[in-house]
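Practice problem: predict the structure.
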Amino acid sequence: YDESDRIKSFHSKMMMCDVLAEREAQVGLKGELKKLEQIREDRFLEMEKQNYRRMLEREMKEKETKEDLSKMASKAQKHQLAEYKEKRYREIEDQMLEG
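Answer:
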């Protein structure tokens, strides 16, 4: 009977040791998974920041392009107006000389 209790006790302690080892392994795995999830989250945030930066840069370039086109159009209109005025003055001058 003593031998049986000792074996039962031994098996119980072995089982407890296995359970604790398994629990420790689960805790370690959970920690590793948490680290991997954090790394994944960090990478995702970095990608989002890069995409946002690219979007801002693209918008700024588009704005600069629009401003440049607007300036060019304004300059062309001023030039056309000056040519028109000059032509009109000559016409009036010619009419006065003929008149």
